[in-house]
Specification:
The protein is α+β, with helices and mostly antiparallel strands. The protein has helices at residues 11-21, 29-49, 55-64, 82-94, 110-124, 129-148, 158-175, 179-189, 198-202, 210-226, 242-246, 254-257, 281-294, 310-316, 326-331, 334-344, 354-357, 360-366, 414-428, 434-445, 454-459, and strands at residues 66-72, 79-80, 301-308, 369-373, 385-391, 396-401. It has 2 domains: 11-272 and 422-459, 2-methylcitrate dehydratase PrpD, CATH 1.10.4100.10; 278-401, 2-methylcitrate dehydratase PrpD (60s Ribosomal Protein L30, Chain: A). The protein starts with 10 loop residues before the first helix and ends with a helix.
Length: 462
C-alpha cells in the first residue's frame, strides 16, 4: 500500500505546476550541461541504431506514410507525421540499448523525451535552444520522479509507462501549452500508457520500440490537449490511476515530490559504456577487470559464477540461448556479455552482430556462466554484482562491483562521451563527414544560444 506522509498531497497538481512554471533560467548550470551531454550521447547511438534489425523496416513505414508538412526522420531524411517521426527516431536511438539509464529505476529517459521534443519542435515552428533544453530537463524529471515512487520489482517496462508521461510533458512545453493544457496532455497520455516486459524476456524486436510508443503517445497527447481534448485528472493516484492500476497500489510519493524544483533528476542518469542492457554492466565491469588477472586465457576457465539481485537474475541471468532475434538475446544476457568481455577484452557494437554472437569460443564460455540471486541485495538493484572465475587448476579469482561505469558516482566525462559519439558514427559507416559532425557537436555545446532548433535537426539529415 502507499505510504501516508506529508507528501501525499495531490502529486498530479504539483508535477503539473512544476512543468508549467519552470523556465530555462530556473535550471541549475549542471542540469543544462548534462542535458547537452545526453543529447550528444543519444544522437550518437542513433547512427548505428538506424541500421539495427527492425529500424530500417520502421523507417520504410514512415516513408510510406510521408508528409511534407510533418517532422523529420533523422539520418534517413524523410518527413512523416510527428507521432510517427517520434516513434522512428526513438527506435533508432534505443535499438542498441546504448542509451542513458536511471540506475535506481532501471529505465531509460532520453529515448522518450528527445524524439518527442524534436517532432514537436518542427511542428511548432521556431523553437529556441533554451526552450528545448528546459522541455527535455522537465520531461526527464517527470519520468524519473514517477518511477522513483514505485516499490515493486520490474513487471512493466517503465521506460515506456513512465516515459509516456515525460514525453507528454516535454511536447507540451515545446508547444507552449498553459497549465490546463499540460494537465490535459498528461491525462490524455495515461490512456496511451503501456509497456510490458513480455517482449523483453522473449527477445522480440518490439522491445526496442516501446520507448518510441511512449514518445509517439506524448506527441499525440500534447496536440490533442492543444485542440481542447480533456484527460484524466487523477492519472497517478486515482482509483484506476497509474500507481493503483499498473503498480498494484505499492508506491511512495515522498521520492516523487521531494525537492521538486530544487533538484533535477537529470543529473542522476547514467551514460552507458556498453551497448547492452544496463543490468549486465556491473558484471561486464567485473569481467573486464578479472580478464587482466587471468591474462585473457579463457580456455583455462572451468566455470564462472555471478550473483546479482533478483530482478537482474530474472531478466538477464538466464542461460544464453540464441533465438529468432540474436541481437536482442545477446543484449539481455549476462552469460553472453561476460563471456564476450573475457574473450575479447571489450564489449562494443560489433559484439552484437550475428556473426560475433555465434562465435563458438564465446558461446562455449557463456555456457559456463551461472547467474544466481544474492538475497542480500534489494530486489530491484542493478548496481552490484559479484563475479567469481573458477580455473581448471583450482584457483579462484573474484571481483565485486558496487557501482558500474557510467553511473554519476563513476561518471563518463565529456570527452569520453564525445569519443563514444565518434566511435558510434564511425561504426555505422554512414557518410556524414567530419566537418558536419564537428559542427553538430559545437552547436550542442552552445545550444542555449541558437534561435531555431531546426538548425540542429538539419545537421542530422543527409
Amino acid at each position: 500500500m502507499s505510504k501516508i506522509n506529508k507528501f501525499n498531497l495531490n502529486p498530479e497538481k504539483r508535477l503539473i505546476d512544476h512543468i508549467a512554471k519552470v523556465r530555462y533560467e530556473d535550471l541549475p548550470p549542471e542540469a543544462v550541461a548534462y542535458c547537452k551531454l545526453l543529447i550528444i550521447d543519444t544522437l550518437g547511438v542513433a547512427f548505428p541504431g538506424s541500421l539495427a534489425p527492425g529500424c530500417p523496416e520502421v523507417a520504410d513505414l514512415a516513408r510510406a506514410w510521408s508528409s511534407e508538412s510533418g517532422s523529420s526522420v533523422l539520418i534517413h531524411g524523410d518527413k512523416t507525421t510527428p507521432p510517427l517521426a517520434a516513434l522512428v527516431n526513438s527506435t533508432m536511438m534505443h535499438a542498441l540499448d546504448f542509451d542513458d539509464t536511471l540506475d535506481a529505476s532501471a529505465l531509460h529517459t532520453f529515448v522518450s523525451v528527445f524524439p518527442a521534443a524534436l517532432a514537436a519542435s518542427e511542428s511548432a515552428g521556431k523553437v529556441d535552444g533554451r526552450k528545448f533544453i528546459a522541455a527535455l530537463v522537465l520531461g526527464v524529471d517527470v519520468i524519473c520522479r514517477i518511477s522513483m515512487g514505485i516499490d515493486r520489482p520490474l513487471s512493466w517496462i517503465r521506460t515506456a509507462t513512465c516515459g509516456s508521461f515525460g514525453a507528454a510533458a516535454t511536447a507540451s512545453k515545446i508547444l507552449g501549452l498553459d497549465r490546463d493544457g499540460i494537465a490535459n496532455a498528461l491525462g490524455v497520455v495515461y490512456s496511451h500508457t503501456s509497456g510490458n516486459a513480455q517482449g523483453l524476456i522473449e527477445g522480440r524486436l518490439v522491445k526496442r520500440m516501446q520507448p518510441g510508443f511512449a514518445a509517439s503517445a506524448g506527441v499525440t497527447s500534447a496536440f490533442l490537449a492543444m485542440k481542447g481534448i480533456t484527460g484524466s485528472i487523477d492519472f497517478l493516484c486515482g482509483p484506476y490511476g497509474y500507481y493503483n492500476l499498473y503498480e498494484a497500489g505499492k508506491f511512495d510519493l515522498e521520492p516523487v515530490l521531494a525537492s521538486l524544483g530544487n533538484h533535477y533528476t537529470i543529473n542522476e542518469l547514467s551514460i552507458k559504456p556498453y551497448p547492452s542492457c544496463r543490468m549486465t554492466h556491473a558484471s561486464i565491469d567485473a569481467a573486464l577487470e578479472l580478464r587482466d588477472v587471468i591474462g585473457g586465457i579463457v580456455e583455462d576457465i572451468d566455470r564462472i559464477e555471478v550473483t546479482a539481485s533478483k530482478m537482474v537474475t530474472e531478466m538477464v541471468g538466464k542461460p544464453f540461448v540464441i533465438g529468432i532475434n540474436p541481437q536482442v538475446d545477446a543484449q539481455f544476457s549476462i552469460p553472453y556479455t561476460v563471456a564476450c568481455a573475457l574473450t575479447r577484452g571489450d564489449v562494443f557494437i560489433g559484439d552484437f552482430e550475428t556473426g560475433a554472437i555465434h562465435d563458438l569460443q564465446v558461446k562455449a564460455l557463456a555456457d559456463r556462466v551461472k547467474v544466481s540471486v544474492n538475497p542480500q541485495l534489494p530486489a530491484k538493484d542493478i548496481l552490484h554484482a559479484e563475479l567469481a572465475i573458477k580455473m581448471k587448476d583450482g584457483r579462484t579469482h573474484g571481483k565485486t562491483v558496487n557501482v558500474p561505469l557510467g553511473n554519476p558516482a563513476k561518471a563518463m566525462g565529456a570527452e569520453q562521451c564525445r569519443e563514444k559519439f565518434r566511435k558510434c558514427v564511425a561504426y555505422s559507416g554512414l557518410d556524414f563527414g567530419n566537418a558536419k559532425i564537428e559542427e553538430l557537436l559545437s552547436m550542442i555545446d552552445f545550444l542555449e544560444d541558437i534561435q531555431d532548433i531546426n538548425r540542429l535537426i538539419a545537421l542530422m539529415l543527409p
